[in-house]
Amino acid sequence: MMAGFSGIGRIARAGLLLSGTIATGVAVAQTVRDDASVPSAPLNVPANPQFFGKTEPNVYKATARVNGEVITATDVDQRLALVLLANQGSKIPDEEKQRLRVQVLRNLIDETLQIQEAKAAEVEVKAEEVNQRYAGVAQNFKRTPQQMSEFLKSNGSSERSIKRQIEGELAWNRVLGRKITPFVNVAQEEVQSIIDRLNATKGSAEYHMGEIYLSSTPETLNETAANAQRIMEQIQQGGSFAAYARQFSEASTAAVGGDLGWLRAEQLPGPLAEASQRMTVGQVAGPIQVPGGISILVKIDQRQVLTADPRDAVMSLKQVAISFPKGSTQAQATPQVEKFAAATRTISGCGTVQATAAQFGAEVVDNDQVKVRDLPPQLQDILLKLQIGQATPPFGSLEEGVRVLVLCGRDDPQVAGGPSFDAIMAQLEEERINRRARRYLRDLRRDAVVDYQ
User: Fold this and answer.
1) Alpha carbon 388 to chain centroid distance?
2) Both 285 and 211 in a single domain?
3) Low-confidence residues of the chain: pLDDT under 50
4) 155 with 143: CB under 8 angstroms?
5) pTM of this prediction exceeds 0.85
6) What is the DSSP string of 67-111?
7) Residue 45 buriedness (CB in 10 A; 0-12 / 13-18 / 19+)
8) What pLDDT score does 89 carry?
9) Rounded distance, CA 340 to CA 362, Å?
């Protein structure tokens, strides 16, 4: 038996990183390195450097000591397991796991530096706060904290690993709240300028984009592009875009899974602007060369500025679902699916749904608050063309069952309003905080004593 609209949820949901449920703030598009505004002097590097002593660039260290605090191989393994969980069981080659392991170690070093800085600033994160956040993560997975701990353990991770990540995020946010946020200012004129531009561009296309940004130099461009291509392949095979953004992206938006938020094409660098206009919702594009590096894009959604979007309609739906005995083959299921499809095509209103379902022993589930935008793109297009009382074509699988959606009602959206003055100001402030936070962390790395074991 299938509960609720769980099948739709599995189709619709994007890759989930465990820690994504505890991230705070909204990032703003910034396809530039955070240190781009920092003056730098050219390095005197010879064209053909000669190394002294044995070099083994492909041998990576598994552990590290950060200002005297040890990061063990177990710490790395358990955090890597969280990343693998985020990829929803998709197969990841051993070579890719090695690259992920290296990135996880780097992230653990940053996390350790952040927690150490919080302690130095006498910023306290109480155990009960961490436990509360952990309970929230467990709830998102429909588990109790105890069940979540057992789930993590069975997948090679641990309660301790995710709680450490929660502690790091809470501690770092409080450090930023004390040392950076109070000194970030946004003028009212800046906000009003954005509102004026939104009003002037009413009806133009606006995209909700995600980005993974990898910096490079002219000398390392080919290597960076190859790395981006490997990431692309993993995402296309079912890997979580958000998980890879958190691990690999060098923009401040990495903290929110690469989410750039809503923006117009002209707000992006030329190559990304062109790609965003060609992409369909859900598509991943890249590697794309941009100033200073390589980007990978995903189009999460799109809409028109200050214009009512049909996909914001709220629908009342009935889901009619049939299931198959375990071990059924495609040949065995096909005749039943064909009969089911023929019967649902004759549905002439929601009042006849129960009778049709009874013919097949099907389960009927009602949901009166389904926003079209929250459904998979394929279903969005179909539902928007349906008349009240009509059903979609059957969809699903042998494992999850086959179902149709019957449209019982629809509330069309009103003309969309623009973001409020306060929302725009908060977004600008968040952008500036993120950039300063990256510089702050860079300074901590520069001053740290890190001994790789």
Assistant:
1) 34
2) yes
3) 1-40, 54-60
4) no
5) no
6) TTEEE-HHHHHHHHHHHHHHTTT----HHHHHHHHHHHHHHHHHH
7) exposed
8) 55
9) 10
